[in-house]
Amino acid sequence: MSNPPTPESPRDSESEVSADRTVPVETPAAPGLSRRGLLALGGGVGLAVGAVAGGITGIAVTKNNSSSAAELEYSFYGEHQSGIITPAQDRMHFAAFDMRDDATRDDLISLLQDWSYATSRMMMGLDVSAKGAFRGGPYLPPEDTGEASGLGPSGLTITFGFGRSLFRSDDGTDRFGLAAQLPEDFTDLPTMVNDFIQPARSGGDLCVQACSNDPQVAVHAIRNLTRIAFGRAQLKWSQLGFGRTSSTSTAQDTPRNLFGQKDGTNNLKAEEPDRLTENVWITDGPAWSHGGSYLVARRIAMTIEVWDGVQLQEQDRVLGRDKESGAPLSGGTEFTAPDFAATDDGGKLLIDIRSHVARTHPENNDGIAMLRRGYNYVDGNDDTGRLDAGLFFIAFVNQPDRFAAVHTNMARDDMFVEYLKTTSSSVFVVPGGIGESEYVGQSLFEA
User: Fold this and answer.
1) Strands, E, within 245-374: which ranges?
2) What is the pLDDT of residues 222-249, one digit of tens each?
3) Between the CA of residue 39 and those of 29, 145, 202, 225, what are the distances in Å?
4) Cα-to-chain-centroid distance, residue 339
5) Using CA atoms, how far apart are residues 233 and 229, in angstroms rounded to an integer?
6) Distance of CA 361 to the CA centre of its chain
7) Per residue in 274-320, pLDDT tens?
8) Is the distance from CB of 419 to CB of 307 less than 8 angstroms?
9) H helices within 248-302, ranges in order?
């Protein structure tokens, strides 16, 4: 994969220089932070949508040729949104928003414009606006909260998605004139075994996935996008995550989840474009959705204390892999393909057909694969003194039904389900990538 082109200088605006970057500050003729959004920030000047020239999403752009974690930078622009095939970062802040009941189509468009502009800056390690946290004057609230100042881009990616309710509300209302553009493939997930779904922490009109190698940078992104949304949308629910539970690049090692197991060994990788086209990128349905994907987010509570009391050989049997090496119990190394027909000397299958790897492997699911991008979470403890902890599971697929098929197969017989309880479930359609001077989802509103 080649390096992206060097960002161009702004064509018609004042500019702010950061390291070796030239970034637009103001372009009065272009849409930007709306007056309503600026009032929420305490400002009073328009800001431009669009920032720098694009590049291939998921490829790092480093400032001053630095390779430090703080200076790692990804482009907001490209064929696909960042934060999907981008090498998975270590920290995540996920948030879902609902538009206000009195919000109009123009409010929704202006919000996406404002979010796009702010995101293009934050992904470069800049404040959400030129005035930022410190230059707005002593008698106005700062336009940026400032807690990420000096931390650099830190590999920040921000991914936006649209919920079904944005196209048609539960009562059938077409609030924003988008019902005709609802993809036929955008279906709800069926109720699964061990689903204890809490509506207050599921769904939403919009979602934002902020990933970074610095937790404060990810939190800063969601915090400031929430401020910008004031008067148009409000935060419905959010989730913090740490310790990625999958690798999305062959350059990354396989991480471990809170059960101590290597997680996502068989995950799709950025270096597999054909498999991504087959399983992740949307190519059918409305043209505005092409190049996008469906984001499935499920908060899966793990019975940590119960699992910790299970014998090691039983843990291996339940997962179908060796806990230390990650190798399938049929033999080989971590990345050896499982042999589900292999038996021991007594004729017993080496990998139990009810094991997690057997129930979820593409070989046993008509070849269906998905790009996993989940994170561990620990939200304190419950009222019994047990850890409120588990996996915030995120997967990208080109049809929700394909995810549902794998999960149904898993839920039917998978021994692993005994140790899991899903408390949140959501599906969002992620629009394709953003071009220069465009805002996220622009083609949807122009369809």
Assistant:
1) 293-302, 371-372
2) 999 999 999 999 999 999 999 999 999 9
3) 19, 15, 30, 14
4) 32
5) 5
6) 23
7) 999 999 999 999 999 999 999 999 999 999 999 999 999 999 999 99
8) yes
9) 273-279
